[in-house]
Amino acid sequence: MVAGPEGPANRARIHNSPGPRWFGEERPIRRVHGDASMFVGGLRALLLQSMHPLAMAGVAEHSDYRGDPWGRLARTSTFLAETTFGTASDAQRAVDRVRGIHTRVRGTAPDGRPYRATDPHLLEWVHIAEVDSFLHAHQLYGAAPLDAQGQDEYVADTARVAMALGVPDPPRSQRELTERIEAYRPELKSTAAAREAARFLLLTPPLPLIARGPYAVLAASSVAMLPSWARAPLWLPYLPPVETTVVRATGRILVGGIRWALAANA
């Protein structure tokens, strides 16, 4: 469901095509983006990104996330795979494709402010919320968490993709990433669209009955990773004792199971 019907073919093309890559096999971005912890980090990223009213307005008005959530997820996962593991030419084509889509995403938010997806300021928010989420998930649920240097190098790796997408000066260290997120906090707030997206993502995704239990663990794990200041605006619970014990333990079991399944089908 995450990779989409073209997943096996895309995987073979991305990983087996000869040619230079943006990132060598030893780079931290490959370790992070290739780990099962991305399932938790991706959901956390969507929740955090929704807190910027202009970014959320663009998603609500131009994205079919409710009608075709798995298609949107497949496209996002393919983009991450192409830019992380694919050849340099495939990575650049993926970036060009996204930039082309962004030129058509513009409008007026419910509060009357205009927005456009090519705005470097909005692009940076989407980028840093994503990178912070992927890194945080990897440190909690990854098979091999990064040391301090590795975390800085991961942030620096992701800056390569962000600049290609139109972010002029993305953060290049963990400290800069944290400082940049703090700088955006005055712009973040609760909106009806953000709360609706959170409800859809956490409570009513289109899943078969058998998948709802594991997905609930993923959802709880992603919410538990959000900073406390992000909970109330999205009407999400904040239960530190439970989150650091029960939720984290069950999250690690589930992510470990996903990792095992991915390895068995590799």
From TrEMBL:
Pfam families (UniProt xref): MPAB_Lcp_cat
UniProt-recorded Gene Ontology molecular function terms: oxidoreductase activity
Start and end residues of each ER-bound oxygenase mpaB/mpaB'/Rubber oxygenase catalytic domain: 30-253
Disordered: region residues: 1-21
Protein's name in the database: ER-bound oxygenase mpaB/mpaB'/Rubber oxygenase catalytic domain-containing protein
Organism: Mycolicibacterium vanbaalenii
